[in-house]
UniProtKB/TrEMBL annotation:
Cofactor(s) the record lists: [3Fe-4S] cluster; [4Fe-4S] cluster
PANTHER family xref list: FERREDOXIN, OXIDOREDUCTASE
Pfam families: DUF3470, Fer4
Keyword Lyase in record: no
Taxonomy of the source species: Bacteria, Pseudomonadati, Pseudomonadota, Betaproteobacteria, Burkholderiales
Stored Gene3D superfamilies: 3.30.70.20
InterPro entries noted in UniProt: 4Fe4S_Fe-S-bd, 4Fe4S_Fe_S_CS, 7Fe_ferredoxin, Fd_C, FdxA, RnfB_subfamily
Chain residue ranges for the region called Disordered: 88-108
Function: Ferredoxins are iron-sulfur proteins that transfer electrons in a wide variety of metabolic reactions.
Domain 4Fe-4S ferredoxin-type residues, every copy: 1-26, 30-59
Source organism per UniProt: Ottowia thiooxydans
Official protein name in the record: Ferredoxin
UniProt keywords, alphabetically: 3Fe-4S, 4Fe-4S, Electron transport, Iron, Iron-sulfur, Metal-binding, Repeat, Transport
Amino acid sequence: THVVTEACIQCKYTDCVDVCPVDCFKEGANFLTIDPDECIDCAVCIPECPVNAIYAEEDVPKDQQHMIKINADLALSANFKTITKRKDPLPTAEEWKDRTDKLAELKR
Ligand code: F3S
């Protein structure tokens, strides 16, 4: 599977969803997750993300390993709904795009 890491939190640019051939992205309030049961590892979403939030599972950086389980868990959450069309980023995107350690902000 591919994994959305903390960089997405508070940004949610959504460029990634337009290119996904299998509609594996699910949208929460301030984060998108990839459903590991839907992702076909095509990797086309990786270069689309302006904040480089997306990695193949085997390439997830050490400090983002916790996001593998979080993606899988949130994909099953009723608070996360399939998104297939790009929309405006969050109003907080510009302010948060270069920040790290955003996990405390994640709305589940
Ligand atoms: Fe998030 Fe990047 Fe997609 S910020 S919504 S993973 S384009």
